[in-house]
Amino acid sequence: MEKHMRVPFTRQEAATLKSGDYVYLTGTIYTARDAAHKRMYEALMKKEALPFDIRGNVIYYMGPSPAREGRPIGSAGPTTASRMDKYTPALLDLGMQGMIGKGKRTEEVREAMIRNGAVYFAAVGGAGALLSKSILSSEVIAYDDLGTEAVRKLSVKDFPVVVVMDSQGNNLYETAIKQYCKE
């Protein structure tokens, strides 16, 4: 099924998404990769505030290339999500509603997603230049010293993703394999 969705979104809105749905996101998403996740986790352990209100928001696991003239961002493809898995349950428990990346997730992340009604989207790896066309603006909001791994606030319009894991824990990577093996 194809859906258009505003971001950030609520747990109730996330519940309408099913594994395998094609979704076009419009609104605000944030970027963070390994180093930024580590800093956010350390801040949480010290009872410090995160650089943005995570409730209802979506984090895109992406480190952009430099922007071309006249563009807000360079190539903006996803990175492997499993590198953030040790930090993800804590962020989900704070109300993060979604993540965008590529690749499989751990059982701990799946359980935290079900517990919190969150979703995991995949963006197409290798299509970073195409994905960047859906990004209207990019602003570094935290950890500027991390360069491409800094936290960015992105304004997106019709950003294309696929629901890999829905809020009930259905996993497209598993169901697609089973379906393929039946045929």
From TrEMBL:
SUPFAM superfamilies the UniProt entry points to? FumA C-terminal domain-like
The record's section on InterPro entries has: Fe-S_hydro-lyase_TtdB-typ_cat, Fe-S_hydroAse_TtdB_cat_sf
List the Gene Ontology MF annotations in alphabetical order.
hydro-lyase activity
Q: Name one Pfam family in it.
A: Fumerase_C
The answer on whether this UniProt entry bears the keyword Lyase reads: yes
What are the alphabetically sorted keywords of the record? Lyase
Q: Where is the Fe-S hydro-lyase tartrate dehydratase beta-type catalytic domain?
A: 8-175
So which domain of life are we looking at?
A: Bacteria
* Lyase in keyword set: yes
Query: Which family would the database say this protein is a member of?
Result: Belongs to the class-I fumarase family.
Name the record gives this protein: Fumarate hydratase
Tell me the organism: Eisenbergiella tayi
